[in-house]
């Protein structure tokens, strides 16, 4: 089956373009009933509060939660990671509704505002083992969240060093006791738990499609028909968008 991409706001076009490079059709999802057409789903980066309001307006949250509960693969990038988290802190007054399912606590905008966005080379040994290529990945962080805590069943795929003071300021938002401060700590920026994948950065804004390939293999592991659908999808795209304009730059 095709891969759904939640197309309420954010970098959904870039995800669809990355899937197309791998010969897989991406389907824009805006309504609950459209989820029945796909076997997996990507929730892209964007403005998480805006995305949540639009999802609530279209009554998508019950269908998204059911999609997760059915064990279908879901990948959240940046704002999508916030959606999948069981708990989010650092939110605006009133917070936002979450899909949940990923046993972690995410700090929204952990790395700061738009002007504090950055790129860095992340160590990704698990990704390299599965997909080949270098053991680093160019992480593009734009008003990015970070994962502060994970449950025992969550596999950490990448982390990033931060000054201990910044981390402890964020942990205080969890009302958790602070440990003795060191010079540097790490926050988690990529995780996997069963059918769920989460990245705090934007793989869709790079020319490296290994995270998309990794997610497609997760999809193939879930259903017997998924692996064959990926191989026969080819480069054909019958969606209404013949050419996809990029809302955000693709970093080479």
Automatic annotation (TrEMBL):
Its EC number is 3.5.1.2. It is an enzyme of class 3 (hydrolase). Coiled coil: none annotated. Gene3D superfamilies: 3.40.50.880. L-glutamine binds at residues 46-48, 108, 142-143. It catalyses: L-glutamine + H2O = L-glutamate + NH4(+). GO terms for cellular component: cytosol; glutaminase complex. The keyword Hydrolase applies. The active site is at 78 (nucleophile), 202 (charge relay system), 204 (charge relay system). Keywords: Glutamine amidotransferase, Hydrolase, Lyase. Residues 226-252 are annotated as: Disordered. GO terms for molecular function: glutaminase activity; lyase activity; protein heterodimerization activity. It holds the Pfam family SNO. The keyword Lyase applies. Residues 226-244 have a biased composition (Polar residues). One of its GO terms (biological process) is pyridoxal phosphate biosynthetic process. InterPro entries: Class_I_gatase-like, PdxT/SNO, PdxT/SNO_CS. Belongs to the glutaminase PdxT/SNO family. This is glutaminase. It comes from Vitis vinifera (Grape). The lineage of its organism: Eukaryota, Viridiplantae, Streptophyta, Embryophyta, Tracheophyta.
